[in-house]
Amino acid sequence: MIKKIFRASFLTALLTLAVSIFFVFGILYQYFEGQLIDELKSKAEYISYAIESGALEKINDVDERITIIAPDGTVIADNKVNVAEMENHLERSEVKQALENGSGTSVRYSETLTEKIIYYAVRMSDGNIMRVSAKHYTVMTILLGLVQPILVVLLTAAILCFILSSRVSKNIVKPINSLDLDEPENNETYEELAPLLKKISRQKKVIGEQLQDAKRKQEEFRLITENMSEGFLVIDAERNVLTHNSAALKILGNSGENISDIFELNREKPFRETVENALSGEKAAGEIGLGERIYSVIANPVFENKKIIGAVIIILDVTERAHREQLRREFTANVSHELKTPLTSISGFAEMMMNGVSDDVAADFSRSIYDEAQRLIASVGDIIKLSELEENSARFERETVDLRELAENISKRLKFAADDKNVTITIIGNAQINGVRKILDEMIFNLCDNAIKYNKQNGTVEIILEKDSLTVRDTGIGIPESAQSRIFERFYRVDKGRSRAVGGTGLGLAIVKHGAICHNAEIRFKSEENECTEISVVFPEP
């Protein structure tokens, strides 16, 4: 900006100076020309008077050129040129003016245009015209003669203009450069800049509000994505990662340093196919396994004017869902197996009885059919109980339940099974909780039933009741450490042959687990193989 102002002011000053010199010379030239004409007029009148009065006998003694012309234009006398060589002057403008008005003036240039002759004519009393002339240089000739001094003046003026223009341009720009645009309206500067500064102030305020709004939205977006347990990534059409949350890096096991291509995070085929399908314009999904977890990768393409510019990728932990699906499949298979076995036995015994057997054999078959039917009924009953607990399809009413009373009742119901193995049941302590009596009964019954079934001959079962917990401890065969993590799964048996021998359905501990969930209780478990098993249900404090 300083350079532009400098150039403009410098060139303007030079142009102004040049034009001024030209006009000054022109004005001076016109002024001196007027002075010359006045001088010629005075001389002409003086010489005319002198000629008429006889004071001037010889015009040759006069320095100026004097010409006397008759009214018909004939040159009578001339002090510089031979009159015989001169043409008729009647058509000369100064002569015509003098004949008509008494005096006349004209200017004629030389052939080289370097000088001009000024004529002044006056009519004398005898009717003749007396004309005085003088040579005068033209403006161009005068200027050419003054080239050197003019150049010196112009050079000096140019240097001064350069210095002054430089200072002026800097002084003009200095207040502008010192403007405080953070506070536009608090500046003291040119009055002409006030509207601009006000506009800048308003725009600054609007931009500030927009930036604050953008920052707020960006922070909200960051907080939302950072607090997501799901992984979130945005990529462009070249697979470059534009943004991501920490959950995505944690899931994919990356520190987040120097990430460019998304395939640097994971190169598994399902992941790559999902991303590539999204970048080709299709909504895509796939599953990947990372360690013991299973994740669903969902990718949606992002369009701008029907052109794919990237994709948004969500990574969801579906381990529990996959596990539930696996359990569902296992449950279906186990239910089918558990129901098919007794039904097959019942069908076989019935078919043999239809073909005819002796009364003794028929009695044995009838007993077997009854046992298998009871086993089938027990399995169906446990499945229904478990379904009620899982789906919460039954309306459970809570009440204050005396766990000791419930334990004593259950020990009586299990007395026959305990006596059969000579197992002693002991109840220690007292406890009351707010819960569902039916569910608590099922939980304690299944814990005690298992403690008796898998106990040793002459063993013991202790039911320990405290303020907020119920513990069933036995002196049975225990559970191997390798199987302890699965004992609460439906239909899982550590020793399937032994379990079927003692009549278990494989759903007892699953019912206990879901009963605990229904009461927001925690199950604690410890067991030593061939030593003991202890299962505690810890209820939340009221």
Overview of the molecule:
This protein is α+β, with helices and mostly antiparallel strands and 542 residues long. The protein folds into five domains: 2-145, Beta-Lactamase (2-Layer Sandwich), CATH 3.30.450.20; 183-225; 228-317, PAS domain (Beta-Lactamase); 322-391, Signal transduction histidine kinase, dimerisation/phosphotransfer (DHp) domain (Helix Hairpins); 399-538, Heat Shock Protein 90. Helix content is 50%, strand content 21%. It has helices at 2-53, 93-101, 139-145, 147-177, 194-226, 246-252, 269-279, 319-354, 359-391, 403-413, 415-420, 437-453, 496-502, 508-518; strands spanning 65-69, 75-78, 103-109, 115-123, 129-137, 231-236, 241-244, 284-290, 293-304, 307-317, 399-402, 424-428, 432-435, 460-465, 469-474, 522-528, 532-538. A hairpin with a 3-residue loop joins strand 14 (460-465) and strand 15 (469-474). It is rod-shaped and about 195 Å long. The two termini are 81 Å apart. Mean pLDDT is 78; it is low at 496-502.
